[in-house]
Design goal:
By secondary structure, the chain is an alpha/beta fold. 44% of the residues lie in helices and 11% in strands. Helix 7 runs antiparallel to helix 8 and helix 10 runs parallel beside helix 11.
């Protein structure tokens, strides 16, 4: 694995591509940043560290490790397309106050990364978790993230084994930043790991109830590639193409033919990305259309027990299991035990 701080500051700029619309948004935000300046954020207790995160699953994972030892605040509002989210100028002040910033990386939050680079204090750390925990040769390029564009699939958190690596990276960076509490971060990580390992066993039990030839996914958003690789599933395709436009008529026709030939029982849409195209495919093939998967929008509202990375994974995989003819009870009945209150800030 890459070294900690080297991986944290390795931005891989040469391999990044940014759509023109997003580049314009970043330019506007950077212009506003020059007026905000460092230290322009809301008044806060400067004796407490400020941990800034991006999408809600990463906020939840970081909060599980940080606990009450620092303030954790997310940037991307839940229910927002994180691939195209353009941070408002006010985010620059939050980034300027941050002691450490955890991004997913792998080109998921380029406008935020660029704004962070321009805004953050010189002593702050910028950690791109995906880049830190995954070697280049393990990147997955696929339907919505083709190799020719150079941007790998960034959705590592839907694979619990990789979410555990994210937590490990958060632990190590927090211990470096705040060595007086290194043992606390380690204890929190060990508690999180026990939950992940128990949930992994529940997932495998539930998936075993699905006929082996039905463990296949056709989704709208291409968020399950790493999960599929780890748990032995096949991803048949993803409707959303790399520029976030609708697929061509030919691509839709090919998917319809594939679903009919392979007798796929269910296809999965996203709560954040409504898809008339996927609904049309379901109508034409007779496959059940399930439109409620959540890629990075946590269930419930902040403060609810299920408003967490674990709650997100439980909801998605129980939904998938049931729709494909399996028994989701191992997932729905999984008890992680008592968990500390999540005190992170989740923008809504």
């Amino acid at each position: 694995m890459p070294s900690l701080l080297a991986a944290a500051t390795n931005t891989r700029d040469a391999g990044r591509t940014l759509p023109r619309r997003l580049a314009i948004g970043v330019a506007l935000a950077l212009a506003a940043t020059s007026c905000a300046g460092a230290g322009g954020g809301k008044p806060r207790d400067t004796d407490r560290l400020l941990v800034v995160t991006t999408v809600a699953p990463i906020t939840s994972i970081a909060s599980s490790i940080v606990g009450d030892l620092a303030d954790v605040e997310g940037i991307v509002p839940e229910g927002t397309n994180s691939h195209t989210y353009e941070p408002p100028p006010s985010v620059a002040a939050l980034l300027a106050d941050a002691d450490i910033i955890f991004l997913n990386g792998l080109v998921l939050e380029e406008p935020i990364r660029q704004l962070a680079t321009a805004s953050m204090d010189g002593d702050a750390a910028l950690v791109e978790l995906g880049d830190a925990v995954l070697d280049d040769e393990d990147y997955i390029f696929d339907f919505s993230f083709p190799r020719r564009e150079g941007n790998p699939n960034p959705h590592l958190w839907t694979d619990p084994t990789l979410a555990q690596r994210y937590a490990s990276s958060v632990r190590d960076h927090m211990a470096d930043l705040d060595p007086d509490h290194a043992e606390d971060y380690t204890a929190n990580y060990e508690a999180f790991s026990r939950v992940v390992e128990g949930f992994d066993a529940a997932m495998r039990e539930a998936f075993a109830s699905i006929p082996a030839d039905q463990r296949r996914l056709l989704t709208y958003h291409d968020a399950y590639a790493y999960f599929a690789q780890t748990y032995g599933w096949e991803v048949l395709g993803a409707i959303q193409v790399s520029d976030f436009s609708d697929p061509t008529g030919r691509e839709v026709a090919e998917l319809i033919e594939q679903i009919r030939e392979e007798d796929v029982p269910a296809i999965f849409g996203s709560e954040v990305f409504p898809s008339p195209v996927l609904e049309q495919i379901g109508n034409e093939t007779g496959a059940r259309y399930v439109d409620s998967l959540r890629d990075d929008d946590l269930p419930g509202v902040p403060g609810d027990p299920e408003h967490s990375w674990l709650g997100l994974m439980r909801y998605d995989f129980a939904t998938i299991t049931e729709a494909l003819g399996g028994d989701p009870r191992a997932l729905t009945a999984f008890d992680p035990g008592p968990l500390p209150a999540d005190q992170a800030v989740y923008p809504q």
